[in-house]
Amino acid sequence: MTRSTEDLLTDRKRLLGPNVSTFYDDPVHVVRGEGVWLWDAEGRRYLDCYNNVPVVGHCNPRVVEAICTQAATLNTHTRYLHDGILDYVEALTDTLHDSLDTAILTCTGSEANDVALRMAEAVTGKRGIIATDATYHGNTALVSQLSRSNRPRVGFGLEQYFRFVEAPDSYRNPDPDGTKFAAAVAREIEAHEASGTGFAALVVCPYFLNEGFPDHPDGWLKPAAEVVRRAGGFLICDEVQSGFGRTGTHLWAHEKMGVVPDVMTLGKPMANGHPVGGVVTGAATMAAFRSGYRYFNTFGGNPVSSAAALAVLNEIRDRDLVENARVVGLHARSRLQDLMDRYEVIGDVRGSGLIFGAEMVTDRATKEPASAYTDRLINEMRQRGFILSKLGRHKNALKIRPPLVFSTDHADMLFDALDAVLRDTRPA
Prior knowledge:
By secondary structure, the protein is an alpha/beta fold.
C-alpha cells in the first residue's frame, strides 16, 4: 500500500508517537535511491546534496552485493568466531595512527559515544566531560547530556558531569590558531577539578559540523589537545559526520586538525546505511574498558554489518573518493564565492571537500542571522528537486554534505538552481 503524504503523517503520529521529525514544510516521500539521486512516490527525481549516510552513493552495488552475499551465507553475533569483524577492524585501523589499534563495533554512533565516555572514566577514574555548546553526539541517556540543541528534559542525575565551552565560530568570533578555544577548555577543566568531579574527556567533532563547520586552518585543534593531555584527560573525536574522506584532504578530519585522538567514534556512513557504529582506541584503553565493564553488543560487528563496512572502505579507496571530494569541494567553494559576490544575503562561505555551505545574514555589517530566510531557501530548493538542509547555532547556514560520488556536474546543477532561488526569493 502506498499512502498519501497526509496519510503518512497521520499514521506516523499514530504508530510512532508525536514529534517525530521530518524535513521540509512539505515532507518528501522517498521510495528509491541510486548514486546521488532519490525518487519520491510520484516518480520525481531529487539531487541528494545532504545525506552522508550513503557515503559511497545510494544502493552502491559493491555494498549491496557484500550484504546480500553474507546474509545468504551466515549472520550471527560475535560470541561465535567469524573472520569478518577481524578483517574489517584490521582494515580500519590500518588507516589510522599506530596508537589506534583496537576497536569495538556497535550499531549506532550514539552507542559508540556512550562507550567512549565510559572508556575515559575507566582509564582516568574521573567523570567530568567537556563539549561545545552547539553540538550533538547522540541520544543515549548518557550521551544526550552532551547536546545543547536537543537537550533532554530529564537528566537522570547526570547533568553535574558535563560542562560546555562556546562553539568555535570563524565568522563572528575568529580564533585563527585555536588558542582561545584551548583556553576555554582549560577553564572548564579547572572547574571540573574544583568541583571534585575531575576531568575525564573533551568530546568534539574535529571539523565541528553541527556547529557550522567553521573555517579553521589545518592543525587548529593542537592547542586544545595539548591542554587536555596536560590535564590527564582523553581527547575523543567523533568522526560520525566528518570522517571517511568528507573533508577531501584526509580520510579522517582529526588528521586535518593536527591531532591523534585517544578515542575515535564512528557511525552513520560507516556501512552506507546499514546500521554500524564503532569505537577505535589503543590496546591499553581497550583493556581498561573491558576489565571495568562487561560490555557485549548482540548485533555490533555481526558478519553482515562487517561485510558492508569493509565494502565501504574498499570503495572509498578503489574509487579514490577522498580525491574526488577535494576536487569537487574546490569547485563548489568557487561557485559559492561567486554567489556571495552577487547576493548580499550571503555573509560567509566555507567548507572543505564535500562539506560546504553559506551563512545567510540580514545585514553583512551586523552579521544578523537570516534564519527564517534560510528555511525558505531550503524549502524552495526542495520544491525544485534539490535536497539540502541548514545547521549552526542560528540555523542560518546551508548544510551541503552529499555522498562522496557527487561530481562537479552535480555541483553545477545545485548552484545553478540555488542561483535562481536566491534571485527569486527575496529577504523579508
